[in-house]
Amino acid sequence: MNCSFTQYFNLDRMDVYEPMHQFNMWGDFKGNIYQDAAATTMISEVDAKLDNQSEDTSHTTNGPSNQYDQEASKPADKVLRRLAQNREAARKSRLRKKAYVQQLEASRLKLHHLELELELTRAQCALVSGGVNASHLGFPGAAKAVSVAGIAAFEIEYEQWVEEQNKKTNGLKTALQSALSNEEIDKLVTDTVNHYGILFNIKAAAAKADVCYLISGAWKTSSERLFLWIGGFRPSELLKVLVPQLELLDQQSHDLYNLIQACQQAEDSLSQGMEKLQQTLAEVVACSQALGGGCYEMHNAIDKLQELVRLVIQADFVRHETLQQTLRYLTTRQAAQGLISLGEYFQRLRDLSSAWAIHPAL
Q: In Å, how far are 111, 162, 362 from 104, measured between CA atoms?
């Protein structure tokens, strides 16, 4: 069943060893050969001497054997101790390496954050010293400072958004494992969806500052850029990843299938618009008139980039609407589980990039 994407998206709104077994070598020795007492006494004395000799013989025999057993077990015990020590040393080495890698990653993120703040401060200083009207007068330095300031601010905000998003995902997981009511879980779901809305708002501001930067995906990790589509994720592909993680009724599966079809139609329309816009932009740049001094007239090209900004905002509108439509077809707990799967999916892509960056070269 084909479903028009306009049914879902209003485009007008797009803004060792064992021990030896001991045995008794001597049994009971009984005899009654002579009947007189003297004979009996002699036999008792003989028995006592024989018993003493047997005990001495037993001690003499077992002594060297036990000593041999102890000496034979010493090498095996030593090997076992060394193996245990090696295993413990290897475990501690792995822990130290893991902690070292984590420290390096944290230091890299902190350094990147400081660099962004420094760049933002420099841009703001340039605006103050050069004046806001400098960009209107055509000086490229101030215009560049505006762009750099906008992008630096976006990267800081996006990093904070990701950190907050992970907290919300963990909060949803805790809620599902606890005895919270559906009403309380629904509040968490709504809060998480609104958090995605914040992302689309800061992306819109970044697109107005430098739309080419936003579309390039330089603000995302390398693994995320593999799936980039007009400055973000492709909603239909994300639904295909999300739906198998949920236990759905037949009607829910049918509704979500129709939503995927509608998403694909909207994506095709926007992709065609992107291709046409790229073509016309290339033609405008190629036909720009020379103004002298190595400068060219760029007003028409800038107009095309403004259209590109609107296209990115429209793509984010489709993403946001797809997310909201998907949750409308789900129960409260299904919606919470879906948002958890979504957040974990994006975090795994980021973790993949970090793992690839530190993996040994082949």
A: 10, 19, 22
